[in-house]
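The following block was generated as part of the benchmark described in Methods. Ligand: adenosine-5'-diphosphate.
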Amino acid sequence: MQIETFSPEETFALGQRIGQEARPGDVFTMVGDLGVGKTVFTQGVAAGLGITEPVSSPTFTIVQVYEDGRLPFYHFDVYRIGDVEEMEEIGYEDYFYGGGVTMIEWANLIEEILPESYRQITIEKDLEKGFDYRIITIEEVHRQ
Ligand code: ADP
Ligand code: MG
C-alpha cells in the first residue's frame, strides 16, 4: 500500500488510522531519513490508540512506554543503539511479543531480532513534488 501526503496533518491522520486498527501484538517498523516524518506518523498512531500523553522521539531512552490508551504502546528509537545486546538488556521480547503495539524507528539497525512478521512503514520525500510531499509505503514483511 502506498499513500501520498502533502502535509504533516495528513501523515498524522494516516498514522491515526493505523493506530485505530492496531491489534495486540502488532509490530511496526519505520524506515526513513531524519526529518522525514517518522515522529509525526508515530504521534498519529498514538492518537489512534487513544493516547493523550505527548509523544516525542525517545532520544535518551531506547523505549518509551505509553499505557493510557486502548492498548499499551511501545515506542522504540534504536538510532543510538550499539548492538542488539542492548535490546536484550532492555528485555525487548516482552514488548515485541507482549499484548501491546510496538513501533520501532530505525529498525534496520536491529534487523536480526525483528519478529517473523511485522509491518514496515517507509517514508520518503520527493522534493520535485514539493517540500511537504511524502510517499508512505506500508508493507507486510514475513521473514524466513
Ligand atoms: P523524523 O522523526 O523522521 O526525524 P519528524 O517527524 O520529527 O521526523 O519531523 C518531520 C518534519 O517534516 C516536521 O517538521 C513536519 O512538520 C515536516 N513535514 C512536512 N511535510 C510533512 C509531511 N507530509 N508528513 C510529515 N511531516 C512533514
Ligand atoms: Mg523522530
